[in-house]
Amino acid sequence: MSEQLPAAMEETVFRFTRLAERAIGKRRRRRRRLLIASAVMVVAAPIVAVLAWGWDSSRPVPPAPVEVAETDDGWRVTVLDRSRPEDVVRVLRERGLRVERRSGPAEKAGLVSAETAGAEGAARVAEVASADWLIVWTDGGAGIAEIPDLCQLAGMSVAQAREILAGSQISVRDVLTGEDLDRAEGLKVVLARELPGEVRLWVGDAEPAGC
Amino acid sequence: MSRRRTDRELLSAARDDPEMFGEFYRRCHDDLTRFLHSRCRDPEVAYGIMQETMALAFVAVVVRETKVREPLPWLFQIAMRELRRWQEAQYLETPTADMLDFRATVPDGVDDFLRRDELARALAELPDEDAALVVLVDALGYPSKEVARAFGMTDGQVRVRAHRARQRLRVALS
Lengths: 211, 174
What we know:
The complex is a heterodimer. Chain A is an alpha+beta fold.
């Protein structure tokens, strides 16, 4: 074989190597960018979700007409609500309720705060377990999915809530299916539990049931 | 001393190691060029098709990360396809090699290198596929099963056709 052929071959090998370096480098950079983008998404998604949630919850909500029965002095009250904690506390105090100060971020408001009675509220059941009262309410726009959470927060099952309401004018089934939710806009659903034992439940302006 | 990598290992590594495809090219260069020259009898065409074949293989393996099970049979199939294209058009087209900016002119010496090869001349008398089978199985030592998979034949068909091709080569060389 002459000298030129191996030289040409090596030249092509060199060219292939340079091309491969470029192709592989390009692919690695693209993968790295994808990886970084994925990582950013993973980190950013919850932040965006929280911000969006916060934005939603920051919309002005009419002050809750607190249709809460008066409590005896000395009862500790814990509230979870969509309303602004300050408004709730103010109304509660106007009605003579003694609001227990609790530690944590909502201490200033004297509340265990929860933006909704959904998953976060449910997660706070343990936190409020020591309270004498657990009062939960939501507006008429409450999602169907929230109802079981409300019951859970009140320390009862849906069946129990249904049973308690059996003697009242309110049908739990209606609430649970959401049939009443739209036309009952602004209706306040209050589920409350008195510890130990007796369960009381108010819905809107209805008389306390199960007393 | 490190073990010599198989062709498949080379191509597999070529997806991440820039040196590997060049190594594969070195290994295939002579056999592929001889094979192509045996088919077309034109050094320039043989060299051009070889470059185009390797350029296509490069794009498939390094750029598109294609997994190749039997590298040489696969390469020969690409070469035969390009050869057929040339036979139909009687005009050498090397778009992929051009795209990669490869040297298009045949290096000096390739002519002598190819003309010296009597076996290549004898191979030229065989049909393309038979010649490829002989080169792959007998010259390059590829297992007939792998060649059969790559060419869509049974193992028996590859053995029989390679055997008959060998007999014809023997006659041609005697």
